[in-house]
């Protein structure tokens, strides 16, 4: 595991700034980062990412131009897209929160504001972290099947009309649950066992921060390089609405509201292989069967110097688009 201090003075620092993240003008954040970091590095490059621009392509270009440290300003979706490109390269990722929830940045430690993230960059260390993937698609915090992609579609419409807020994020969950139809019928293989399940929602967590913020068990398993798979027990609308409310208020109970499976390699199969999958709040159509696995020490990321080694940080179950 890498634990070197970043050499800012000798580095080529590239800032990837997603101007479409969150609900505020990012120009002040960009100016703040530039004023703070540019005098400390050998070379500073700025790449602004506008709505519709491919984050992956911009991150790949930064690697190809020789950037040693790539600062990513944006929300969790932006961080995930960049991490998928930076994984396996020599470039170190500096996470700079600029989205609505910023749970990945918060889970790294050292605070959740941009000021605190810059302090983490200036005084932290480079550490290799595990990444999760499903059929080769990287995610930092969670992957979900079933109801959650429908919630995201509903929330995007609400955000477009009313703007972003956590209250509206929770409201989109209630509306989506009210329109729930048939649950999924799947086969799940983990730890050498295969079983059939019927559920409206499967949530594969890779964020200790997320689980702890909801008062859920499993943080230690994630720190040990495993998935915590949450399988919703309820199938009727009323059951799911009540479970969602309990989860929102930190009162969800293992066994009552969901089943938990802990494993480092999971296969999900279905007769219907064309499904939307939500990866860190971004919808993708990934054809099944779906293989979830861990890539050990795949991503170099800057973490606080005094922070104990930990798993990749979290994202709210109701996170916004980054």
UniProtKB/TrEMBL annotation:
Give the top-rank taxon of the lineage listed in the UniProt record for this protein: Bacteria
Swiss-Prot/TrEMBL keywords = Kinase, Transferase
What InterPro entries does the record tag this protein with?
ATP-NAD_kinase_N (IPR017438), Diacylglycerol_kinase_cat_dom (IPR001206), NAD/diacylglycerol_kinase_sf (IPR016064)
Q: Which GO terms describe its molecular function?
A: kinase activity
Domain (DAGKc): give its ranges: 8-137
> Which Pfam families does this entry report, sorted A to Z?
DAGK_cat
**Per its UniProt record, what Gene3D superfamilies does this chain match?**
2.60.200.40, Probable inorganic polyphosphate/atp-NAD kinase, domain 1
- This chain belongs to the protein called NAD(+)/NADH kinase
Q: Say which species the protein is native to.
A: Pseudogemmobacter faecipullorum
